[in-house]
Amino acid sequence: MQVWNSQYVLFIAFGVNSFYMLVSYTQYTTIKPGAGLHREVKFLLLPSKYILNHQNMRFLERSLDQMNQWWKYVLVCACALFLWPAIGSIPLVVAVWINSFPAGEGMESIVQGNVAGLPVGGLSKNLTLALMLFSTVVTLLLTVPLVKALHKRSFSEVINGTKKIRFGRCLTGVWVWFALMSMMYLADYLINREDYVLQFDLWRFIPLVFVSLVFMPFQTTSEEFLFRGYLTQGFAAWTKRRWASLIFPSLIFGLMHVFNPEVKEFGFWATMPQYVYFGLFFGLVSILDDGIELAIGIHTANNIFLSLFATSGSSVLQTDAVLEVVRINPYKDMALLVVMSIFAGAYFAGKYRWNFLVLLRRL
Prior knowledge:
Layout: H1 6-22, E1 24-30, E2 37-43, H2 70-88, H3 90-100, H4 108-112, H5 125-151, H6 155-160, H7 167-191, E3 196-198, H8 202-239, H9 242-255, H10 261-266, H11 268-289, H12 293-309, E4 310-312, E5 323-325, H13 330-352
Parallel strand pairs: 4-5
Antiparallel strand pairs: 1-2, 3-5
Helix pairs in contact: 1-13, 2-5, 5-8, 7-12, 7-13, 8-9, 8-12, 9-11, 11-12, 11-13
């Protein structure tokens, strides 16, 4: 393990201190005419009539019916994780085969090519990325009606337990996380400029923007729908405990990334905590906010930012990004992730008046 630079220790200390400051908010009210202003500090950890009441929550409660047989979840997960992606990958396989056949490579390029590492079979990075992400479009479009058929839950009911999706929450998650990533990467770039190589190519970047903006939301929504929505509701129905519906899907989410090239490059214990922590953060946000819209926005902003601005040789998203990260410290990345999640969580908690005590209440 490399020794962290002092500036990253300061980042963490500053983030923890800021979290303590931001989880409380100050409200000034007039006691009576002429009495001036009274300063009142309220902590979001305490219940309040201004905070979302657990009795009005619908996200996890929607799963409390008689439609939660275990075999249904096994079937949906098997289809969403294996069968639907396989069907959605047919265009990629065909494109690689057609592109490699004239060179005499045949299907060997598909078998031997690092599909997760981009590009494969001589295809451009942008085309390969588009075809890879297309499989997530197919996965989402086929998983939603399957859940509806087996559990009688609509798309919006898996999102937040109601008939209406809060699109404003998605946009808030996008801009907050995108802004935090921009600041953190800019700071790291200024401090450790030798870790980055500028590779900006306008004519490759323009189609990359199009592919990322069109397809990446399907990829992140597909994952969030399955893990933070469907599985989280499932564990809530089985255990009747919110903390269990937070932990178990997060562990599964982390383990589903075990075959990512970053894990092979830096090792299981150096990279897996990031995926599990991300899952825990997404899950916590979803439970406290009574829906997964914020998690979808954060996840989308994270993947679009990395696709457009920061790629690396060991990344699952090897794109024509503006910068290539040539030296990666997974422990530093974990520290920055914690800091960003603290800032984002504190902002959301204050904006939406979260009540953290709901995590301890049974459904």
